[in-house]
Amino acid sequence: xxxxxxxxxxxxxxxxxxxxxxxxxxxxxxxxxxxxxxxxxxxxxxxxxxxxxxxxxxxxxxxxxxxxxxxxxxxxxxxxxxxxxxxxxxxxxxxxxxxxxxxxxxxxxxxxxxxxxxxxxxxxxxxxxxxxxxxxxxxxxxxxxxxxxxxxxxxxxxxxxxxxxxxxxxxxxxxxxxxxxxxxxxxxxxxxxxxxxxxxxxxxxxxxxxxxxxxxxxxxx
Length: 221
Known about the structure:
Elements lengths: L5 H5 L2 E5 L6 H14 L3 E4 L11 E6 L8 H13 L4 E5 L2 H5 L3 H14 L5 E5 L7 H13 L4 E3 L12 H11 L4 E5 L5 H10 L3 E4 L2 H5 L8
Parallel strand pairs: 1-2, 1-8, 2-3, 3-4, 4-5, 5-6, 6-7, 7-8
Helix pairs in contact: 3-5, 5-6, 6-7, 7-8
């Protein structure tokens, strides 16, 4: 894949709108832009479902803190799937990861996976900026054991920060070619997006997709 080709890069993007103040009109504009740009998907809050579009539809669960009971995350994922979500990006309980409780991390991911089985694509947001390298490796391994399809760097809402090339490369080394790796949070230029792809990202979470694809500087997620 030639990431310097805007259309190829667009095909890796989850065009994202997760602002709490977003309206239905904002989502409709997001859909129009995603279809025009040729992004892989849109990613919207679960309350905005269902959404009619020609691209894939992704949503989130346990967002943005991850401090929800596994059963709550599972209900949210199942409900989103019944409303047409093709993909669910779940936030893991970062506190469990920081405490080294990786069996509990695996359990909650598996609980969501069981609630929203394949063909729904399950991405696990690990909030990598809040973890050290050892913890990042361990939660990626837990996600793979639990049946996730992707591991994802960040919500884009954590004060510790978003994606870095180092973390994307570490996640890719950990999961190999068995899982996807999604880079998200703080990617605001085309150069940064291309660097994430070069580091091993197979999907990008962007809210300023048009500006980035056109070589400008984006804002937000």
